[in-house]
Amino acid sequence: MADGENRKLEICISFIQEQLKIHNQRCSDDVIEPLFLGMNGVQGIGKTYLVSSIARNFRQANIATIVLSIDDFYLSNADQTRLATTHPDNPLIQHRGQPSTHDLDLATSTLASLRAGRETSIPSYDKSAFDGKGDRVPQSQWVKVNEKEHQQVRLVILEGWCLGFRSLNDSSLRTAWEKAAVEARFKSTGYFGRLGHNRLEDVRYLNEALKGYDVVTNQLDALIHLDAEDLQYVYAWRLEQEATLRREKGCGMTDEEVTRFVDGYFPSYELSTEKLREGVFEGRKGSQLRLVVGKDRNIKEVVHL
Predict the structure, then answer these.
(1) pLDDT tens per residue across span 91-128
(2) d(C-alpha 173, C-alpha 65), whole Å
(3) Which segments in the chain show pLDDT lower than 70?
(4) pTM of the predicted model as reported, rounded to 2 decimal places
(5) CA distances from residue 118 to 62, 86, 122, 152 in whole angstroms, order as listed
(6) Around Cβ 62, how many Cβ atoms within 10 Å?
(7) What's the first-to-final CA gap in the chain, in angstroms?
(8) Directed axis angle between helix 200-210 and helix 255-278, to 10°?
(9) What share of the chain is helix, strand, coil (3-state, %, to 5)?
(10) How far is CA 297 from CA 38, 130, 228, 294, in A?
(11) Distances 268 to 113, 125, 255 between C-alpha atoms, Å
(12) Interhelix angle 233-249/255-278, nearest 10 degrees
């Protein structure tokens, strides 16, 4: 593991250990609920690798740990197709990924079951199904945790690109969109975002849907935010990932397809990142860790919120 990744891992482990200590002190002697840790970061920033390393470390310390992704809770292919068909003029929800394309009832019931320490089947999603459109894996194939003969889960890590995002009020949304729309018309402004290239009604739909995601965010006891120093880095990181995939697997998106793919997510980054940087937990100082990383993914700044 490179020195930069080692430092990132050490900082995260230290933060989580402290959160576990605080969390366990709050629990009663009879019932110790698992700590729910969120991990947010733009695509390609290294969430999956870091989360895997964190989980391995705590498992080695005999702390039963499971990792979930917001992707595990995507709508079924049939429901996603129905959503897209119902809103044919909104390009942002024609495929999975955005707020409104997840099964929040499934997410909340799964998290509630884990919180209660009950035997729980963990949903899974197959992104390769239906020629890459994806579909939920049959429930019979979901992995079970908290079975009687196994150790009770003590750390639940939930990762996702939009985890912790909060919706804006309509006035703030309109102001942000109008500013972006004006800047998008003039190349001299140096605007490189995508918010201003989408219709207000389309991004408003995502913002309204995001309100429903509070039921997931509010389950979190702590959050780690891997924050790109420049959001534009996401394009280079995703291009890098797909180039590796094409080289190693012989398949993957072209550079043009990658750019279009990231374009669809970028309006949400523009709308929600600043609010996330300010902190998602009101009245819970110290529960959020923000790691600002440069283009090389190495830490530039550590912020405790």
Answers:
(1) 999 999 999 999 999 999 999 999 999 999 999 999 88
(2) 38
(3) 1, 28-29, 187-189
(4) 0.94
(5) 19, 37, 12, 9
(6) 8
(7) 28
(8) 60
(9) 50, 15, 35
(10) 19, 33, 8, 5
(11) 30, 22, 21
(12) 140
Residue 174 confidence (pLDDT): 97
DSSP state of 194: S
Q: Three-state DSSP class for 198?
A: coil
CB burial string 188-222: b at 16+ within 10 A, e below: eeebebbbbebeeebbbbbbebbebbeebbebbbb
Amino acid identity of 286? G
User: DSSP 3-state assignment of 63?
Assistant: coil
CB 158 within 8 A of CB 69: yes
Strands 155-160 and 35-41: parallel
pLDDT of residue 32: 79
Q: Is 33 helix (H, G, I), strand (E, B) or coil?
A: coil
At 3 the pLDDT is 80
- In whole angstroms, what is the distance from residue 65 CA to residue 37 CA? 11
What is the structure's pLDDT at 193? 92
Burial of 142 (0-12, 13-18, 19+ CB in 10 A): middle
